[in-house]
Design a protein that fits this description.
Layout lengths: L5 H22 L2 E7 L5 H12 L5 E7 L4 H7 L5 E5 L8 H8 L9 E5 L16 E7 L6 H4 L1 H5 L3 E5 L11 H11 L4 E4 L8 H14 L6
Parallel strand pairs: 1-4, 1-5, 2-3, 2-4, 5-6, 6-7
Helix pairs in contact: 1-4, 2-8
Length: 221
């Protein structure tokens, strides 16, 4: 007999996530769970997204890190509400952590919450937080073979942001192979090639997100 020791933990997480989801629905807030490995450019992509959408939507950010508040401070410097969650070693955010962060946000004054999950390509895929969509960021320097090595995160993502495309000529990145792998794993996922630092491609990504926010389209868990 084989026991799945993770099931009780995930069941509890999902029950708490449902409460988060009900709260988001009550206030009409779209919630995005941003996933990536360390150094892929999550914070820079979030900042570029805020720059494009802040005049259309009221935005807040929940920052997840093992330690420090460096990223949340960068968000606050832009005049955007940000809540820091330090996991103390845990490799992912859980719905109970999000619930505590929501206590310090004015939900009546928000249209969009962006959750920057802990940098990890494995653990966050299994934890529903009550979000509308998970979006994964892969940077060009990480290599085109990541979908083959970490299929789960690509399968749960509604969109894939391919960041740092301005470095494409420097690294041995086969974009055709990357797209083929993603299409095999998740043919419904849209791929957005961007450079968060230069702004290239950000308009297409943010228009996709804006359409999701305005239509209230949700991902079925």
């Amino acid at each position: 007999m084989k026991l799945d020791v993770s099931k009780p933990l995930l069941d509890l997480n999902d029950r708490l996530a449902a409460k988060n989801r009900a709260l988001f629905d009550e206030h009409g807030i779209f919630v995005l769970d941003m996933l990536a490995s360390p150094g892929a450019g999550k914070t820079s992509t979030i900042l570029a997204t805020i720059k494009q959408l802040r005049d259309r939507f009221r935005i807040a950010v929940i920052e997840g890190d093992i330690a420090s508040d460096v990223d949340s401070q960068r968000i606050k410097e832009q005049g955007i509400p940000a809540v820091q969650i330090n996991t103390g070693g845990a490799c992912h955010l859980e719905s109970k952590m999000i619930a505590k962060a929501l206590d310090v946000l004015d939900l009546c004054a928000l249209d969009l919450i962006i959750i920057e999950n802990v940098g990890n390509l494995v653990c966050p895929t299994d934890f529903y937080l009550g979000e509308d969509a998970k979006v994964m960021i892969l940077s060009v320097p990480e290599g085109h073979d990541k979908p083959l090595k970490y299929p789960g995160i690509f399968q749960v993502s509604s969109a894939i942001i391919l960041n740092k495309i301005d470095t494409m000529t420097v690294f041995d990145f086969d974009e055709r192979a990357f797209r083929a792998s993603v299409a095999q794993l998740n043919p419904r996922a849209t791929i957005f090639p961007v450079s968060a630092t230069t702004g290239q491609g950000i308009d297409l990504w943010t228009q996709w997100l804006a359409n999701r926010i305005e239509t209230g389209s949700k991902v079925t868990k």
